[in-house]
Write a structure and sequence with these properties.
By secondary structure, the chain is mainly alpha-helical. It has a domain of 67 residues: lambda repressor-like DNA-binding domains (434 Repressor (Amino-terminal Domain)). The chain has six helices and no strands. The radius of gyration is 24 Å and the shape is elongated.
């Protein structure tokens, strides 16, 4: 199954859990072995593989134990400012978002100029 924005959160969690379980089995690891290597409890690993909510730190530990920590870098790439953005901000990194300049103004509805 491909993961897309059309999937529900629970469906995505279930698919990720299934994928991790298949990778664990391909690596010939039991749940107890992987849990011990990851430094988490076996019930925590069971929850992750079942697609139930778990802490992100548990997922990080599992990925590290499976030697797959690099997938996180691909999942959420570092934000890079465009060259124009760097010029405009004089090389400083933005820390916040400015309010939209397109505030709703009470104005006349749009019309052709010849319609008065």
């Amino acid at each position: 199954m491909d993961i897309s924005k059309l999937n529900t959160d629970s469906t995505i969690l279930e698919e990720l859990g299934n994928r991790l379980a298949r990778i664990r089995i391909q690596n010939n690891l039991t749940q107890a072995d992987l849990a011990q290597e990851a430094g988490i409890s076996k019930p925590t690993l069971e929850r992750v593989e079942a697609g139930r909510d778990a802490q992100v730190s548990s997922l990080i530990r599992i990925l590290r134990a499976l030697d797959m920590i690099d997938v996180l870098d691909k999942t959420i790439p570092a934000a890079k400012a465009s060259p124009m953005e760097r010029l405009r901000t004089k090389g400083r990194e933005r820390k916040r978002v400015s309010p939209s300049s397109k505030k709703t103004k009470e104005s006349k509805p749009w019309s052709w100029r010849d319609e008065a």
